[in-house]
Design goal:
261 residues; elongated; five-stranded parallel beta sheet; six-stranded mixed beta sheet
């Protein structure tokens, strides 16, 4: 009997464990090889100021669970949520907001039946909430090698808001960096590029970090399941042999992995 196919999680360590618990329920071998390391942002005073002036924002957009957790770590026990909306692109970020104490009525995310959980589908549901002259805060991450207190990413949503006359401010609540692998970890990854393992990517950045760690590796036999078409495009551009897409919920990912052929 052939050995079961291994599934490789590449999410940050703080996020991977929740997915690993769901994916391993059927006894499938699941390993976690984080390809993005996350640390707290070096400007806590800016995070505290954003929370202290919470009511000035018509909405606060969070790009990830990490964005929520690293900002809300500075929240006062007496923090008042006012009428400020909290926007999330997916269920993981939504759950983090609710866990932080945000009233459910103030949380917005794409419809559960949306084809994708992303900023494009989020905007369809929240564009009516903002008016010209209002302010929206985008809480996101920044890169360790090019830190910015405003963060990086989600330029598309910023453009839509600006075109609607909304003032947009970015805030980095965490820092992303590439992991450091030793020779043994690199050897394992090279083997996994050829042995039928299925790599799970929820970020194009994780793919780029992997290719930087193994610049000479050929990926023509490698298999990947990704959570957005943009990530699929990155994988294909980097030469991956088989790339499939799933919506980014652990249950749907598990179903997609089980059907992977």
């Amino acid at each position: 009997m052939a050995a079961p196919v291994r599934w490789i999680l590449t999410r940050p360590a703080e996020e991977a464990e929740r997915w690993r618990q769901v994916l391993s329920q059927g006894g499938q071998p699941v390993v976690s090889w984080p390809l993005i390391d996350i640390q707290a942002a070096p400007h806590p005073a800016l995070l505290q100021a954003a929370l202290q002036n919470w009511s000035q924002w018509a909405a606060v957009m969070f790009v990830s669970r990490a964005a929520v957790q690293h900002l809300m770590a500075w929240r006062s026990p007496t923090h008042h949520w006012a009428s400020t909306r909290c926007w999330a692109t997916g269920p993981g970020t939504q759950q983090a907001l609710l866990a932080a104490g945000v009233p459910p009525a103030l949380v917005d995310m794409p419809d559960a039946q949306a084809g994708q959980f992303d900023t494009e589908h989020l905007w369809q549901g929240v564009r009516h909430q903002v008016q010209p002259g209002q302010q929206v805060l985008l809480v996101r991450g920044t890169e360790a090698d090019a830190p910015s207190s405003a963060g990086q990413g989600r330029d598309w949503l910023s453009e839509q808001l600006s075109q609607a006359g909304v003032q947009v401010q970015g805030l980095a609540s965490y820092v992303r960096s590439a992991p450091v692998w030793d020779a043994a970890q690199c050897a394992q990854a090279r083997a996994a590029a050829q042995d039928g393992s299925i790599w799970l990517f929820s970020s194009s950045q994780a793919l780029r970090h992997l290719h930087a760690l193994l610049p000479e590796q050929h990926w023509g036999q490698a298999r990947a399941l990704v959570t957005h078409p943009r990530i699929a495009e990155t994988a294909q551009q980097l030469g991956w042999g088989v790339v499939r897409t799933s919506r980014p919920s652990a249950a749907e990912i598990r179903s997609s992995l089980e059907c992977f052929a």
